[in-house]
Amino acid sequence: MQLKDIHTIYFVCIGGIGMSALARYFNGRGVKVHGYDRTSTPLTQQLEREGMSIHYHEAPELIPQGVDLVVYTPAVPSQHQELQYFRKHNFPIKKRAEVLGIISRGMKTVAIAGTHGKTTTSSITAHLLRHGGLDCTAFLGGIAQNYGSNFIAGKGDWVVVEADEFDRSFLQLSPDLAGILSMDADHLDIYGDEKSLLETGFGAFVDRLKPEGKVWVQKNFASYFNGNPAIETFGADMGTYQSKNIRVEDGYFVFDYENPEQTMKGLKFTMPGKHNVENATLAINVALELGISKEKIREGLSNFKGIQRRFELVYRDDQVAYYDDYAHHPTELNAAIEAAKTLFPTKKITGIFQPHLYSRTRDFADGFAQALDQLDELLLLDIYPARELPIEGITSDMLVQKMKNKTVKRVSLGDAMNELENRSLEVLLSLGAGDISTLVPKIKRYLQTTVKTQ
């Protein structure tokens, strides 16, 4: 099937961040876009305003006539009524990653991989390229605040994509340039163990690089690829391409950049945390490789507005600051909490965290407990199951038992606001990848209108 043959397309779970980016791409091509999602969200409502047709319960009778292609993700359960209908009636069906691969193979591709930081780094990279005059397309895993979208339509030859290791999706790509931010154990429900993640995941991804391509690997993980001439190393205070002299000045993170051929001093970046400086370092590597000027890179870093739910500043006044973050792995929690402590070293940090997936909670329970122990206060929600069924003995109460922090309090999603309203807040972090996101506008309204510090 070729893209020109698709006139009507259907997305099963269109409201996912990656799925909705693809939906926007096809909608922009004049394709009729239809889809299902289980919940109406601000994102699905925006898709409807953009002209897409969406319904919110499994109903094969609502599927339109003449669907040329069905797109789904591995997160959709096999017993989903509409997916079963499409399979029974032999519709052309492809995973989201397959479709993204088809699109990218017709373009020059920058692929950003890693178990953490893909969305932030992809968004920074796309922004630096576009700010520097390279009219790239981008498929992002979050809403880039500079563009108000997770899809950026460009007219040039280049596309920036996230290379997702989940379900080995990134093996559908054949990038010209690539970056690997991290290779921490994750998605062990897919890979089985860390060795398999490295070999059949990231190792195979690097093998997909086009001839004469280049890949930058974070220095701590580069030893796995010893001997591969395409590999360059990067990092914060490490690697051949590196950021250094990282400091905080007037609310900005400021750093110097150097590689074997070029140096930039005093770069200002809006996103806090050493990990985000490292993300920016990879984006700078790509931008320089594609001919973006130092001046445009400097400007682009300073006016980058961030991504929704990636240490997103939701509200701040003289008394309280509230950030929301998608963190759902111990490494991501550590990064978000460290960023908050760096920005507010004397303030009380209150977190509200929703674990994501029973299997991930089981596999990284000790890491979650250690990360959450860094908070001054914690409200802990129930595990968000997503695609999984419960696992015996794996609950949020299990995490409480592993924690040393005795300020932790277990609350339901429905009771979370009442609990927050009875607390004196200085810095608040909402953390997690599930429906904790529904709390964000409620917390913001509360802070804007009725917050009382004690």
Q: Uncertain regions: pLDDT < 50 for 5+ in a row?
A: none
Q: How helical, in percent, are the residues?
A: 25-40%
Biggest pleated sheet: 10 strands, mixed
Distance between the termini: 63 Å
Strand order of the largest sheet: 8-7-9-6-10-11-12-13-14-15
Rg of Cα set: 22 Å
Description:
With 454 residues, the chain is α/β, with parallel strands linked by helices. Helix content is 32%, strand content 24%. A 10-stranded mixed sheet has the order 8-7-9-6-10-11-12-13-14-15, sandwiched between helices. A 6-stranded mixed sheet has the order 16-17-21-18-19-20, sandwiched between helices. α13 links the parallel β19 and β20. The N and C termini lie far apart (63 Å). The model has no long low-confidence stretch (mean pLDDT 91).
What labels would you give this structure?
24% strand; globular; 21 strands; alpha/beta; 454 residues; 15 helices; single chain; 6-stranded mixed sheet; 10-stranded mixed sheet
Give a short synopsis of this structure:
The chain has 454 residues and is an alpha/beta fold. The protein is 32% helix and 24% strand.
Helix-strand blueprint:
Blueprint: E1 8-12, H1 17-28, E2 32-36, H2 42-49, E3 53-55, E4 69-72, H3 81-88, E5 93-95, H4 96-105, E6 108-113, H5 118-131, E7 137-144, E8 149-152, E9 158-163, E10 177-180, H6 188-191, H7 194-207, E11 214-218, E12 231-236, E13 241-249, E14 252-258, E15 263-269, H8 274-289, H9 294-302, E16 312-316, E17 321-325, H10 330-343, E18 349-354, H11 358-363, H12 365-372, E19 377-380, H13 396-402, E20 408-410, H14 416-421, E21 427-432, H15 439-449
Parallel strand pairs: 1-2, 1-4, 2-3, 4-5, 6-9, 6-10, 7-9, 10-11, 11-12, 12-13, 17-21, 18-19, 18-21, 19-20
Antiparallel strand pairs: 7-8, 13-14, 14-15, 16-17
